[in-house]
Amino acid sequence: MAGGAVVGFPLLTSFALTSAPASHGAVVVALLPAATAVVAVLRTGERPVRSFWAAAVCGAIAAVAFALAQDGASAGVGVPDLLLFGAVAVCAIGYAEGGLLSRSLGAWQTISWALVLASPLMVLLSGLAIAQRPPTGTLAEWGAFAYLAAVSMFLGFFAWYRGLAIGPMAQVSQVQLAQPVMSILWAGLLLGERIGWPTVLGGAAVIGCALLAVRARNRDS
Asked: Is residue 221 domain-resident?
């Protein structure tokens, strides 16, 4: 779990987004809910009904189309795309393993120990990066960095792994479909990017698919 959610996903997405826009990253990350559901089914033996898979596939397609509508179609598959696909794969595994571990260890304990386990490698990589190029930034940039560290990489996982532990994990994972929508909405609020009615309608379609997938029942329920 530490290798996927703490190390792999942040590093791969960070390297990818140095040469690709954030909205382009949302196109590939939109596949994460479906990937997490597949890994969860393989690891837990859950048996979602066909309506769940239909909603999950429609949600992934809608999320990708929604993000593409904001970013425009890209020609070909480049290195950033491969990094983002790799990030999706390792993160899906990390989410499923973390959800399973949270059932016995607890949600906040799981992410806390994962951070402890990954800390030697991350301290080493951070030290090398600081030695090569000491970090600089504005107050707003350091504030964003602090938010990522405290909320995105720590506190947010309290609720996320608790939800996955309660399950069913495949259904809960589809909540992630809201991520590309929320990313673009926050880009509008924080970065001043334009949000029109097509964006609103596309986001509503994605959220609708997420709700259908989350409400689907397992065959053995």
From this structure: no
Please indicate, yes or no, if residue 220 is contained in any of the structural domains.
no
Q: Which tens digit of pLDDT belongs to each residue from 8-20? A: 988 898 888 887 7
Q: What is the DSSP string of the chain?
A: -IIIIIIIHHHHHHHHHTSS-HHHHHHHHTTHHHHHHHHHHHHH---B-HHHHHHHHHHHHHHHHHHHHHH-PPSS--HHHHHHHHHHHHHHHHHHHHHHHHHHH-HHHHHHHHHHHHHHHHHHHHHHHHHHS-----HHHHHHHHHIIIIIIIIHHHHHHHHHHHS-HHHHHGGGGHHHHHHHHHHHHHH-----HHHHHHHHHHHHHHHHHHHPPBTT-
Taking only the tens place, the pLDDT of each residue in 91-124 is 999 999 999 999 999 999 999 999 999 999 999 9
Tell me, what's the pLDDT at 59?
A: 76
- pTM confidence score: 0.78
Q: How many domains does the chain have?
A: 1
Closest CA to 44 of 116, 95, 82, 118: 95
Assess if residue 71 is contained within a domain. yes
Domain span at residue 16 reads 2-215
From the CB of residue 36, how many other CB atoms can be counted at a distance below 10 Å?
27
Residue 59 near residue 37 (C-beta atoms within 8 A): no
Q: What is the pLDDT of residue 77?
A: 59
Between 48-57, 120-129, 169-178, 185-194, the lowest mean confidence (pLDDT) is in 185-194
C-alpha 47/C-alpha 7 separation (Å) is 30
